[in-house]
Specification:
With 137 residues, the protein is mainly alpha-helical. The protein has a domain of 88 residues: Serine Threonine Protein Phosphatase 5, Tetratricopeptide repeat (Alpha Horseshoe). The chain is built from seven helices and no strands. It is flat and about 70 Å long. It starts with 10 loop residues before the first helix and ends in a 5-residue tail after the last helix.
Length: 137
């Protein structure tokens, strides 16, 4: 039963139905959407988020300086903290392509597609890498 009352209505209406509301407690959709701790959710601790962001930023700076080996090291450190970021996997794959490490690029683009099956840049690059590796299946 839905009950609509003004916010400034007297408390006698609430008192009559307060017991019935307490006995019919249901979980809202928002409460049901809260996931359990069993699922992989990414980073939660602020210190880990800061460390993850720092590694990503250092990798980006190294890539801009064309220091691809250092960029790859920092990207791999970041992905060890949070492997759910599709854009990070894409960047790893892109740097691996520039380093001509095709198996690593393949793995990165595949992981990116596991994170988000609709990420077209990962799919496009994966097709190219698979063709180069002669993996036509």
């Amino acid at each position: 039963m839905i009950r609509i009352a003004a916010l400034n209505a007297s408390s006698t209406i609430e008192d009559d139905h307060e017991g019935s509301f307490k006995s019919h407690k249901i979980q809202t959709k928002e409460a049901q959407a809260v996931s359990s701790g069993d699922e992989k959710e990414g980073l939660k601790h602020p210190g880990l988020i800061l460390k993850y962001s720092t590694y990503k930023n250092l990798a980006q700076l190294a890539a801009q300086r064309e220091d691809l080996e250092t960029a790859m090291e920092f990207y791999l450190e970041a992905v060890m903290l949070d492997s759910t970021d599709v854009n990070l996997w894409y960047k790893i794959g892109h740097v691996a392509l520039r380093l001509i490490r095709l198996p690593l690029a393949r793995h990165a683009f595949e992981e990116g597609l596991r994170c988000n099956p609709d990420h077209w840049p990962c799919l496009d690059n994966l097709i190219t890498v698979l063709y180069t590796l002669s993996d036509y299946t």
